[in-house]
Design brief:
- It contains 13 helices and 15 strands.
- With 371 residues, it is α/β, with parallel strands linked by helices.
- Helix 9 packs parallel to helix 11.
- It is globular, with a radius of gyration of 20 Å.
- Bound molecules: 2-succinylbenzoate (OSB) and magnesium ion.
């Protein structure tokens, strides 16, 4: 695959419903899409950097110039026999993992399409159906949250995860558990607590949660091990894990019992697979996180979720939960058993709707060999 040109594009898509975490509320997404033009193949990927530097220091306006001035030039004009060959070419740039992941994952898409094999098989996936959960944001009232949970359970989702923060935690969990004592339930704090709050966090143990995700600082591993010693609920790390070394270290010091894999946060499919393998070798289950992706990122999340150690339901849910109209065809659908059937066709198995993408585009730049 020769990369002849690279298009950077921003699209804007309003969410069906706002999404609130401990760091803020999102009503509409600004999404950074990459297209690699490779000898007649247009390969796509989504950069999951957010509108603001809140989930991570990386955000849309840092990713765009990093791709434009450093990462795209590093792979432009090159010929690749496999996608992971681009990793060392981009390694001179420190960090900026979401930006790197967008280029690398687009190259995997190109490779799967060129070789006429499904992306999930190219990645080494084994599971042809994946289990789905939902992530439900902070609502205006507990009643609203209960109603949302009711809707998602009726749709068949296998696991409910709620966002928590001080003031929106024990009382809502209590309400949920008194109505549904047995559902698979977890929570995600997105770093809303500190180690001073151990006594408060111990009270989560009574709710029989599958896990508590990222309770402490986004840049911390060590203090999570001190917390894990003091609480029964399994800690799952999201923000703190950037690569396979982080994962190995976290597992070794007992900072978590579960790890959330987001290929954007980890810098691409190659590192995502490494984190998966490190966890598998330590018998630590992983699951696929989400970043409010459009269908393009969603399709990539489905592909990585087929690897064997993805043993817990992920935050990979149906297109219609987020979008009035998604930019892929067919849209991602979830069965009444809470399962996505993985498509056994070349590439991602989803067609990119270029007409619709063009309509949503607010900015676009194409970089070609020789300028
Ligand atoms: O921490 O998992 C997170 C969304 C934006 C930023 C961070 C997170 C999330 C989610 C959404 O939980 C999951 C989804 O895309 O459904
Ligand atoms: Mg999370």
């Amino acid at each position: 695959m020769k990369v002849e040109a690279i298009t950077l594009r921003e699209i804007q898509m309003p969410l069906v419903d706002f999404f609130e975490t401990s760091f803020g509320r999102t009503y509409s997404r600004r999404i950074f899409l990459i297209t690699l033009h490779c000898e007649g193949i247009n390969a796509w990927a989504e950069c999951v950097a957010g509108e603001d530097p809140y989930y991570s220091s990386e955000w849309l306006e840092s990713a765009w110039p990093t791709v434009k001035h450093y990462l795209a030039p590093a792979i432009l004009g090159r010929n690749f026999s496999s996608a992971s060959e681009c990793v060392p070419l981009m390694s001179r740039v420190r960090g900026h993992r979401m930006a790197k992941a967008a280029l690398e994952n687009a190259l995997w898409d190109a490779e799967a399409t060129a070789k006429r094999i499904p992306l999930w098989k190219l990645l080494g996936g084994k599971q042809q159906s994946i289990r789905c959960g939902v992530s439900i944001g902070i609502q205006d009232s507990a009643e609203q949250l209960l109603e949302k949970i009711q809707t998602e359970l009726a749709a068949g989702y296998q696991r409910i995860k709620i966002k928590v923060k001080p003031g929106w935690d024990l009382t809502v969990l209590e309400r949920i558990r008194s109505r549904w004592p047995d559902i698979m339930l977890s929570c995600d704090a997105n770093s809303a607590y500190t180690l001073d709050q151990v006594e408060h966090l111990r009270k989560f143990d009574q709710f029989n949660l599958l896990m508590i995700e990222q309770p402490l600082w986004d840049d911390d591993i060590y203090n999570h091990s001190r917390l894990q010693e003091r609480i029964k609920t399994a800690i799952c790390l999201d923000e703190s894990i950037h690569h396979a070394r982080d994962a190995a270290q976290a597992v070794e010091i007992g900072a978590c019992r579960i790890i959330n894999i987001k290929v954007g946060r980890l810098g691409g499919f190659t590192e995502g697979k490494k984190v998966h393998d490190v966890c598998a070798s330590h018998n630590i289950p992983v699951w696929c996180g989400g970043m409010l992706e459009s269908g393009i990122g969603r399709a990539h999340n489905i592909a990585i979720s087929t690897l064997e150690n993805f043993r817990l339901p992920g935050d990979v849910s149906a297109s219609k939960r987020y979008w009035k109209e998604d930019i892929i065809e067919p849209e991602v659908e979830v069965s009444s058993e809470g399962i996505i059937a993985v498509r056994d066709v070349p590439g991602t198995g989803y067609k990119v709707r270029e007409d619709l993408i063009e309509k949503f585009t607010v900015r676009k730049e194409t970089i070609r060999v020789g300028g």
